[in-house]
Specification:
Helix content: 25-40%
Number of helices: 14
Oligomer: single chain
Shape: globular
Strand content: 15-25%
Number of strands: 24
Distance between the termini: 75 Å
Strand order of the largest sheet: 14-17-18-13-12-20-21
Largest sheet: 7 strands, mixed
Length: 494
């Protein structure tokens, strides 16, 4: 797969509401521009409040008709599995679309994003007929049933960095549980979400059950969060917008609001790290993966002072492997930043690192592997102190801040001194230290002697301002179901 093969590719940017691809009701569109080389991909429906209302009404009608919510779980399972199979069958198409739309290397778009999205959809399809209800341990004169019911209409707003995966993490458990969904993808990368909805329809998910309305946050996202007939809003994105989502949920109908937000994850390497080379590879590879555009990127690297020089020497030798290249070439491991706005923001943070006194060890400049694209070099700062902006704020780019420490209590205090609490890691051969530090870290996931290794079976989410609720695992069903008690009085005849 390479650039010439995409020259005549065309995409449908219309919304999908009630089973039909349609333009925005007022005819407005916005341009989808590829960060790979600046090409125009397509015009996308610029949906607004009227389109959101139409999608919610379609979702509500589908839910109340019970054509999906009333299906036996085993039947929904079969359709969800067919949906997952369709995603895999269209893997080349979806991967190319994802790469052109948001800039990630095509080999990761296919090998990671497409596969993870299909696996998520399949897993929740498989799971839904294996979720049992309960009978409470009451006395002999009552039978108390505890049942899960679909919450109703679920609004979903997802970010631009992992468009398929983030959508799948939310729509898969919501759909499997019997809900209807209105999905608003990011305006920076809306194309694969629209294509997923096409595939869902073809797999047998009834019209109106899964709707996709592209548009800008204030014009489409806010009306979705404020809509009085949306029962639940699930959001992944910035902490700033997440706070607004919670306010809107309260201002409207007190809908359930689940938000997976930002991170400034600490990666802690002790001098007794069992494999320094592996720790270096994980630190460098994880921060530069997906161009650093990951909420769980280990952007704060804490290295024990006695091994910091050796660690950085090894790390700097790996940096050339992550120089940005054409995302459409299979050899590329770091692609384009999603758009010019985000590129400018990354460069602003690099400028702040320099001006606040951090020592630039690598990168720090723009790159031009493809003319017209948005690229920045992999960047490492040493001599970072906790009060520096690059140590406190989420950059969402390939920028690593290196800090040092002298003992476990010191580094735990530094690591926890953040408004975020999404992920963390600790590298040590001392099992007592590993357990003690892991328990002390205020984060939703703590890795020991690894980073970002997980699968669909474990929950993902954070503490503090990294959000509310959990994606993935069976716990995701908690977000998209209501728990009902049915108390049946029994007058025993014996």
């Amino acid at each position: 797969m390479n650039a010439p093969a995409t020259a005549t590719q065309t995409y449908d940017g219309r919304a999908l509401i009630n089973g039909e691809r349609i333009a925005a009701l007022d005819g407005q569109t916005f341009d989808s521009i590829s960060p790979v080389d600046g090409r125009l991909l397509t015009a996308v429906a610029r949906c607004g409040e009227a389109d959101i209302d139409a999608a919610v009404r379609a979702a509500r009608a589908a839910f109340e008709s019970r054509r999906w919510s009333g299906m036996a779980p085993a039947q929904r399972k079969r359709i969800m599995i067919k949906f997952a199979d369709a995603v895999l069958a269209h893997s080349d198409e979806l991967a190319l679309m994802e790469t052109l739309d948001m800039g990630k290397p095509v080999k990761y778009a296919k090998g990671v994003d497409v596969n993870a999205a299909a696996n998520c959809i399949r897993w929740y399809g498989e799971a839904v007929d294996k979720v049992y209800d309960e009978i409470a341990p009451t006395g002999p004169n009552a039978l108390a049933l505890i049942t899960r019911e679909a919450v109703g209409v679920v609004g979903v707003i997802v970010p631009w960095n992992y468009p398929m995966i983030m959508a799948a993490w939310k729509i898969a458990p919501a759909l499997a549980a019997g809900n209807s969904v209105v999905l608003k993808p990011s305006e920076k990368s809306p194309l694969t979400a629209l294509r997923l909805a096409d595939l869902a329809l073809a797999a047998g998910i009834p019209p109106g059950v899964f709707n996709v309305v592209p548009g800008y946050g204030p014009e489409a996202g806010s009306p979705l969060a404020l809509h009085m007939d949306v029962d639940c809003i699930a959001f992944t994105g910035s902490t700033r917008v997440g706070k607004q989502i919670h306010v809107m949920a309260g201002q409207s109908n007190l809908k359930r609001a689940w938000t997976e937000l930002g991170g400034k994850s600490p990666n802690i390497v002790f001098a007794d790290c069992p494999d320094l080379d592996r720790a270096v590879e994980a630190a460098v590879g994880s921060i530069f993966f997906n161009q650093g555009e990951s909420c769980n990127a280990p952007s704060r690297l804490f290295v024990e002072a006695s091994i910091k020089d050796a660690f950085l020497e090894k790390a700097l030798k790996l940096v050339p492997n992550f120089q940005p290249g054409n995302p459409l070439e299979k050899s590329t491991v770091m692609g384009a930043i999603v758009d010019q706005v985000q590129l400018d923001n990354v460069m602003r943070y690099i400028g702040l690192g320099n001006s606040e006194g951090a020592k630039l060890l690598a990168g720090g400049s723009l790159a031009t592997p493809v003319q017209g694209g948005c690229y920045v070099q992999p960047t490492i700062f040493d001599g970072v102190t906790p009060e520096m902006t690059i140590a406190r704020e989420e950059i969402f780019g390939p920028v690593l801040s290196v800090l040092s420490f002298t003992d476990a209590a010191d580094v735990v205090k530094q690591a926890n001194a953040s408004v975020y609490g999404l992920q963390a890691a600790v590298w040590t051969r001392d099992i007592n230290k590993a357990h003690g530090v892991a328990r002390a870290l205020r984060a939703g996931t703590v890795h020991v002697n690894s980073y970002d290794e997980d699968d669909i079976t474990v929950p993902f989410g954070g503490f503090k301002q990294s959000g509310v609720g959990r994606d993935k695992s069976m716990h995701a069903f908690d977000k998209y179901t209501e728990m009902k008690t049915t108390w049946i009085k029994i007058d025993s005849p014996v």
